[in-house]
Structures are given as C-alpha cells and as structure tokens.
Write a structure and sequence with these properties.
Helices cover about 75% and strands about 5% of the residues. With about 300 residues, it is mostly helical. The chain is globular, with a radius of gyration of 21 Å. The longest helix has about 35 residues.
C-alpha cells in the first residue's frame, strides 16, 4: 500500500497546535502554571493524608491514591508537551510514544475505576453508617485500590499492544499533542475496524460501566439523604459527596466527549482542548475542589504548614 511503512518508525511528529503559533505561546504559560499547581496541590494532599491522624480514614486513603495517580498522569504527558510547545521540534521517539500511551492509558483507566470505588465508599458512609467501619475495613480498602490499579494497567497493556501492531503511514504524524489511541488510529494506513471496535468495548468497560455504578450509588445516596430529617444532617451528607461528584462530572464529561463524539475535523480540533482539559486542568482542580469544600483537609494542610520550618 502506498504511503504505508511496515517497519518500526524512529519516532512521531505530534502536530498538536502547531498551526497556531500564538496559541502555543499562551498554552506554554498556562500549562506550566497549571502543572506547578498540580504538583504542589496533590503532593500537599498526599502529605496531609499521611501525616494527619484525623485523615486516616477510607475516604482520604482513596483521595491520596487519586492525588498520586494525578501526579503520575500529568507527569507522563506534560513535560513532553512543554518541550514541544516551546520550539519548532515537535517529535517524540517511538519508545517514548509507546511508554506515554501505556502509562496514560493505564492511569486514565485506573482513575475511572477509582472514582467508582470512591462512590462506593460514599454510599457505604451515608447509606450504611452504622456498619461503615465493618464494611470498609483496611483489607477491603487495599483490595479495592489494587483492583483499580491492576485493572487499569491490564486494559492499557491490551490497548497498547494492539495499537502498535498497526501499520502506520510513512509521515508518522499524530494529530494531537500526545500519543493517544484515537489519534494513533487515524495515522494508520490499514483497516482499523477491529481496533476501533475493541476501543469501543474498552470505553464501555472503563467509562460507561464505572459511570453507571457511580450514578447508581448516588441514586441510593440521594434517597438516603432525603430521609434525613435535620437540615444540618443533610448538609453534612451532601458536603461529603459534593467534592467527589464535581470531580466525576469534570473528568467523565471530558472523557466521554473525546472517546464517544463523532469523527470530523471540527470535533478533532475541539477534542484536543477536551484532552488538554482532562489531562492538565482536571488534575490541578482536584486538590482545590477537595480543599475548598472540606474543613478537615484545610485543618490538616494548616497543620502541615506549621511543621515547615521558617
């Protein structure tokens, strides 16, 4: 087939926003600031959850997992993105592309499952308060966290192997700012129907199913909250779920838009910004959401700052 390269390419060209140089300069500044906030905010939550005895609870165990995940997720993408934004060279090596796709897929899938696990934790706390400590025992916490991490990277292993078995076009251009499944599929010069169907199945398993479980959990939570007679009790119950629910809306909203929307040049340009949102912006917002809406985290962070020598 003309324009097809059956050998392993030396690297890829990540087109990203190369057709908009001025936008690249703006993004370079915005992404740099956002990445700094991501590192600072998530590291603070991890340290606070570890050092503060009041935060040694199931909710903050999963929150520290989420913060660690977000640190790794952005670090697998942003440094390469900043390098490409700052100059005319916008390449990534073949090995680098494989590694980036594998890590980003694994962590993204893990986050989908982890958010569903966190919804189950909130369901147990509000709908089964008297049995909460028995249900969410330390062994189960470790098992649920392990389930999220292992299942995420199993999916990433399968997807990565299948994607890089494709015969890619000789130009090796990827119309995105990172190595991502939809963009790599579009750069193939062979029939990709099987891989597209496999990606659709993976989207159902790791996006639709976790989101469905989250919605069911919150359906039961709303039912239990409405049965609470005191207004203070309702506010307290809603406060424990508000932060998580907002994170779910931001993350799954952008994920669904990228992986389920129709294919066209119009949506491809918009999907880059949506991908930018869930890979860069959301991990920076998560610590702010949990900090601003949670007094316990605020107190723990203040205590952490007092320990820092002047």
């Amino acid at each position: 087939m003309k324009g097809t390269n059956f050998s392993t390419p030396a690297g890829f060209v990540l087109l990203g926003f190369s057709d908009q140089p001025r936008l690249e300069m703006v993004l370079l500044l915005v992404v740099s600031v956002t990445y700094t906030l991501t590192l600072t905010g998530n590291m603070a939550i991890i340290l606070a959850s570890y050092l503060s005895p009041k935060l040694h609870t199931p909710m903050y165990f999963f929150l520290s997992n989420l913060s660690f995940l977000d640190l790794c997720f952005t670090t697998s993408i942003v440094p390469q993105m900043l390098w490409n934004l700052r100059g005319p060279v916008k390449t990534i090596s073949y090995a680098g592309c494989v590694l980036q796709l594998y890590v980003a897929l694994g962590l993204g899938s893990t986050e989908c499952v982890l958010l569903a696990v966190m919804a189950y934790d909130r369901f147990s706390a509000i709908c089964r308060p008297l049995h909460y400590d028995v249900i969410m025992h330390p062994k189960l916490l470790q098992q649920l966290a392990a389930l999220a991490w292992i299942s995420g990277f199993v999916e990433a292993t399968v997807q990565t192997i299948l994607v890089f078995q494709l015969s890619l076009c000789s130009h090796h251009r990827v119309d995105d700012f990172m190595c991502e499944v939809p963009a790599l599929i579009k750069s193939a010069c062979v029939n990709t129907s099987f891989l597209e169907n496999e990606a659709a199945v993976a989207s159902v398993l790791y996006v639709v199913v976790p989101l469905g479980l989250i919605l069911v959990s919150y359906g039961w939570i709303v039912r239990s909250v409405l049965r609470i007679k005191s207004a203070q009790g309702r506010r307290k119950a809603c406060g424990t779920c508000g932060s998580h629910l907002l994170v779910v809306v931001l993350f799954f909203g952008s994920i669904i838009s990228v992986y389920i929307q129709p294919k066209s040049k119009y949506t491809q340009n918009h999907s880059k910004f949506l991908t930018l949102f869930y890979t860069v912006v959301t991990p920076a917002l998560n610590p702010l959401i949990y900090t601003l809406r949670n007094k316990e985290v605020k107190w723990a962070l203040r205590g952490l700052l007092r320990r820092v020598p002047c």
